[in-house]
Write a structure and sequence with these properties.
mainly alpha; about 60 residues; about 10% strand; about 45% helix; single chain; Alpha-Beta Plaits
Length: about 60
């Protein structure tokens, strides 16, 4: 929910001096026995999937 609120807020910014900006997010949850590298890799893969889907979206791993 937080990632979606941030995505919408960023995409609706209307600052004349700035170009149009959007954001994509890869989100994951901690699973028992996950190391930090496993968590970051899973989130990174989700982010690249979001970008492949056309950007300005959220993918949950």
């Amino acid at each position: 929910q937080l990632a979606e609120r941030l995505r919408v807020y960023i995409s609706e910014l209307d600052e004349v001096s700035l170009p149009k900006v959007t954001a994509s997010f890869g989100v994951t949850c901690y699973q028992a026995d996950d190391s930090s590298s496993v968590i970051f890799n899973r989130a990174d893969k989700a982010l690249y999937e979001a970008k492949a889907q056309g950007r300005n979206c959220i993918v949950v791993a």
